[in-house]
Amino acid sequence: MRPPRGPGRRSRAAATCPDATQVADRFHLLQSLSRAVEKVCHQHRSCLKKHAERGQDRPIQMPPLDALPPTLIVQRVLNRHAETNRMVATGYPVSEIARRLSLDRKTVRHYRDTDLDMLLASPRLGSRPP
Prior knowledge:
Order of helices and strands: HHHHHHH
Oligomer: single chain
Largest sheet: none
CATH class of the largest domain: Mainly Alpha
Helix content: 55-70%
CATH architecture of the largest domain: Orthogonal Bundle
Number of strands: 0
Radius of gyration: 22 Å
Strand content: under 5%
């Protein structure tokens, strides 16, 4: 059942379908929570890495690319890397790529010069590898 949107609708909805569960509310709550957690983890990746390195002596094994969950950040990195390298191969200058993709020129150079595994290591590990 779709959640009510205005005053009085909730009581009308409950009277009409008393046993209905408001699934959309739960779905959107979980969706908003997962987006917020992903954003906070990405913003604080240097803190997370610092604490992770403190108690870990063995090297971290990266999961294969196909094992990554399809998060918004991973999809954005994959799309930007592919589009940037396609435009570089076509012969576009960095400034034109930046203009067309609405990115900074330094970001375009970063996508152009960095291997995809290293780009994806940032959200996976918590910061850019050395």
